Model the fold of this input.
Amino acid sequence: MCGIVGYIGKEDCINPLVAGLTSLEYRGYDSAGIAILNGDSLKVLKDEGKLSRLKDLLKKNELCSNIGIGHTRWATHGAPSKENAHPHTCCQDKIAVVHNGIIENHSVLREDLIKKGHKFSSETDTEIIAHLIEDFYEGDLKAAVSKAIGFLKGSFALVVMSSDNPKLIVTAKQDSPMVLGIGKNANLVASDIPALLGQTREMIIMDNGEMAVLGQDSYQIIDFDGNPVNKAIAHISWDQEAAEKGGFEDFMLKEIHEQPVAVRETLRGLIDDDGTVNLKELKIDSSRIKDINRVVIIACGTSYHAGLVGNSAIESWARIPVELDIASEFRYRNLLVDDKTLVIAITQSGETADTLAGLRSAKDKGAIVVAVTNVVGSSVTREADGLIYTHAGPEIGVAATKTFTSQIAALYVIALFIAQVKGRLTNEEIKKRSVKLWDIPELIKQALTQEENIKKIAQKYAKKPDFLFLGRGLGVPIALEGALKLKEISYIHAEGCAAGEMKHGPIALIDDDCPVVVVATNSATIDKVKANTEEVKARNAQIIAVVNEGNHIFDGVADDLLFVPEISDIFSPIINIIPLQLFAYYVAKAKGCNVDQPRNLAKSVTVE
Ligand code: M6R
Done:
């Protein structure tokens, strides 16, 4: 995944480009670059590494221009390097391109272009686009881009500028996100909405198969066949503050603290004040849901862990078999789904390639596909039959936190909805549970009050090389997610495991240098969890236990306690994850890690 931005207007483009790239850096930070019109020619500045390197270059080169494009890269084809950084230019350096996506047939196109005499200076798939446009160029940039994209296979959001056409920039979109910003004295384009908020609140979300030609005070949208497309301008009311850190040291910490609001907003979008489930965006006839005989949940990473919780809630309340699959596996299975299967694809970004591919395969087999996502206008929203939005607001930290708890909240509501439609719970039983959901935001707030205690405990363990996370029942998804959070931001090896499974292998890891984190809140299996904890204690492990306030069952067993307020077992995951998010955060901070942009990771994984 990469971030792209383009500006054409009456003012200098450097500030809007840099502001846009700063907001987009979560999409990739292997390199950054810009191209601007400098007199009659293009000037490209780019470097390997984070945006700060580009900013240093800009300080040394005093540039000013009213048209430019920019890019922040997450490497796919070609290592992170200055040569592979975007923008890429053609042989004569008259055309510059920034790209987000993957050109699958780039090798074939490259060979053809080399035969025609084009010389390449990078290993990227993107560079072929610049040369291809050059090959078709006969004085009309729009026409050349249009011809070039006809040869591209794969996904692309492109922004193109040319020194021979100084009054326009051209964009095209297929399977990668793209938004136009319509300003008073400028028009812009970027990979997402927050990147443009500093310039305008009037936006157009582009769809697949569309191109746009932006001038200083005009824009034209056409389809790939050249037919004009009329699109509504959406007024975006998001506060710019919402996309910034708001006083917290990192986005991740801010987003952890935003969870009471994120969950409340998510519930507000799905349940009416009187407790009635109201899935406004679902747009699937209830009779189709009534007929389903199976639910399949697909997702990756943290979203998969949310799916594990959803699995339990749907089976418990709707009494229908649920299967859960990792999207990258599901997409290649010989699928057993049909028009009686409801497939729920969970993806906060709405852009995860494997989840999208799984969704398409399920649709091809006739399944009813519903997507749970946080991003309006993301790819998944255009492909699913029905939508359930989480309303967590923009999540910038690469580690998913508020989108995770919001996904769980949404999945509880979906479980109630299926139970309602299939008549497995009475209206009264539905309302009883939906009313309980409204307690969750306040209980998350209470869990967050433990932050100082958790910080001290995290600092005590920050030098340990390995961690094991254990839980039973609904503690398992939280053990898995707690371990994922710790490893992704602190680079400490951590494994999550069902406590009963531990004696079948993981117990061999235990020694006094491998602390064990146990999810040990009240449930039907708490005594079994305690017995497993004693087994690891007997092997010299230090124990950190997540327990309910006022519960002394782990006193004398655990070395350290992380307290959470009590809630019924089915809702416990959404509360129990809070101390483990904070634990991972403070371990990573103690180690001096960049929690918002952990190495090798990107916010959404738009490649296989
Ligand atoms: O955007 P998605 O929810 O589809 O993303 C899925 C995973 O890539 C994501 O949850 C990943 O595991 C995060 N880094 C977790 O913090």
Residues 253-444 form a domain with the Rossmann fold fold (CATH 3.40.50.10490). The first strand starts at residue 3 and ends at 9. The chain has a mean pLDDT of 93. The CA atoms of residues 456 and 586 lie 8 Å apart.
